[in-house]
Design a protein that fits this description.
4-stranded mixed β-sheet, 507 residues, 2 domains, MmgE_PrpD_N, 20 helices, 2-methylcitrate dehydratase PrpD
């Protein structure tokens, strides 16, 4: 059964036994040899497909191209075979650099899975570093499944309990420890080594949320990849006997006391007890649309409203649009953020992806959402869109905030209620709780949907035979040997990478 751990700050003179520290308890989860449930295995396969899909769609974009170039400038380290880089045939690099390049490719379009609770996360960010180490170290598919299941479990449990964003700490501070724990499970490391790696990974991955504020830059895609890279390096140091700041969470100069809720803080962190299966991945959900997760349900509602009421697409017919929604949606991607960039037609793609007023207006007018076309500068600057967009605001609603934070999966919601006031004085009111693709939505994602998403995003950049090769291989994941795991990569069609940006740097 799940065990809830009381985590608080301890003064140095109090002392805190290692076995009572959260990093040690995370290590105990990582070393538990419990079998992976069949439904968890299936979802791990789904999420590897999902990651490959969104990575394929981003291969020719500038941030993944820069990260790929950096990685390929670093040869494979001497301790293993090296790891594959998405898009590249017959080339390997050191695992931390493969985690970096592949992590940026996965994260660039904001199009893979999500888990939202006390904090936010994209748990699929665990896969690139864990997979890179598996390829480098010659680990089989069954071990890879166990490692990914641990990474998801640890991140989901930390996100359930510890809020980072309230203190403007970026959510990748939960990713460093989870990836380190997942790598520990993958390699069968002992609890002491994993404990040290978790501490180092957390210590080096606490950064501010400015990467997701104001004029959002390309670093948003790099941030989780950086955490994954640091997790690989932390494991390497720990395996060499190097130690970490301790207690990293609970110390009087530690993360909780100075970066989070302060010296009087306490958290209740749920973790699987001994012998308890790691089910965390089953509570996560992927994206049908390339946008911030809180925008998923709003896109579905907007496209439905636009189809049912086409007159709403004309700003001349609309006086105002108010999205009544959760605290997070209002303050992070809504008008409550106070970011003028969220209404700027010249804003970056990363900024528009975090602007629910823009997203709702475009989805309403277009009846859908496209990962490239919906963000095109010409699309953002269309005069009728700009006019409608600037009539869209958000408002925090206590009930939608309560539902957002609910621990009951049947009422947890990420949408809200829209009130559209028309020029003639009438109103249109509608609401949506979860995205259509959510497990409780109108069309929950299943294996065929993940495969379809992969085909859609991969067809422009992968040859048909490569698409089929990857899909056949990944769906046999638990049976794969080490050589098969090394082939868990996507190779771009001839000419694709040659036409991508090739930025030069120091390396």
């Amino acid at each position: 059964m799940t065990v809830t751990h009381h985590v608080r700050v301890h003064r140095s003179e109090e002392g805190l036994a290692r076995e009572d520290q959260l990093a040690w308890k995370i290590a105990q989860v990582a070393v538990d040899p419990v079998e992976v449930l069949p439904e968890v295995v299936d979802m791990v396969v789904n999420r590897i497909i999902d990651n490959a899909a969104v990575a394929a769609a981003s291969l020719t974009r500038t941030p993944p191209s820069a990260a790929r170039a950096q990685a390929l400038d670093h040869p494979a380290s001497r301790g293993g075979a090296g790891a594959a880089v998405f898009g590249v045939r017959d080339a390997t690099t050191s695992p931390e650099w493969a985690a970096w390049a592949n992590g940026v490719a996965v994260r660039e379009l904001d199009y893979h899975d999500t888990f939202l609770a006390a904090d936010y996360s994209h748990p699929g960010d665990n896969i690139p570093p864990i997979l890179a180490v598996a390829q480098h170290a010659g680990v089989d598919g069954a071990a890879l499944v166990r490692g990914i299941a641990t990474g998801y479990e640890v991140q989901v449990d930390l996100v359930r309990a510890i809020c980072l964003h309230r203190h403007k700490i970026d959510h990748v501070a939960h990713l460093g420890p989870s990836a380190a724990a997942g790598i520990g499970t993958l390699l069968g490391l002992d609890a002491e080594t994993i404990y040290q790696a978790v501490g180092q990974a957390l210590h080096t991955t606490t950064a501010t949320r400015q990467s997701r504020k104001g004029e959002i830059s390309s670093w948003k895609a790099h941030a989780p990849a950086f955490a994954g890279k640091l997790a690989v390096e932390a494991v390497d140091r720990a395996m060499r006997g190097e130690t970490s700041p301790s207690p990293i969470y609970e110390g009087e100069d530690g993360v909780i006391a100075w970066l989070l809720d302060g010296p009087d803080a306490a958290y209740e962190v749920p973790l699987p007890g001994p012998g308890e299966p790691k089910r965390g991945i089953l509570d996560t959900y992927t994206k049908e649309h390339s946008a911030e997760y809180q925008a998923q349900a709003w896109i579905d509602l907007a496209r439905r409203l636009g189809s049912e009421r086409p007159e709403l697409r004309d700003p001349a017919n609309v006086r105002s649009v108010v999205l009544h929604t959760s605290h997070h949606t209002h303050h992070v991607i809504g008008s409550g953020a106070g970011d003028p960039q969220k209404y700027d037609p010249a804003a970056s793609r990363e900024t528009l992806d975090h602007s629910i007023p823009y997203i709702f207006a475009v989805a309403l007018q277009d009846g859908g959402w496209h990962h490239v076309d919906s963000y095109a500068p010409a699309r953002a600057a269309r005069p009728d869109t700009v006019e409608l967009w600037r009539k869209v605001t958000t408002a925090e609603d206590a009930e939608w905030t309560r539902r957002y934070h609910s621990e009951d999966p049947d009422e947890k919601a990420f949408g809200g209620r829209v009130v559209i006031e028309l020029a003639d004085g009438t109103t249109v009111v509608d609401e949506i709780a979860v995205a259509d693709a959510h497990p409780l939505g109108a069309r929950p994602f299943a294996r065929e949907d993940y495969v379809a998403k992969f085909r859609l995003l991969a067809e422009p950049v992968l040859e048909p035979a490569e698409i089929e090769r990857f899909l056949e291989l990944v769906q046999r994941l638990p049976e794969l040997d080490a050589d098969d795991v090394r082939r868990l990569n996507i190779v771009a069609a001839p000419g694709v990478l040659e036409a991508a940006p090739a930025p030069k740097g120091l390396f």
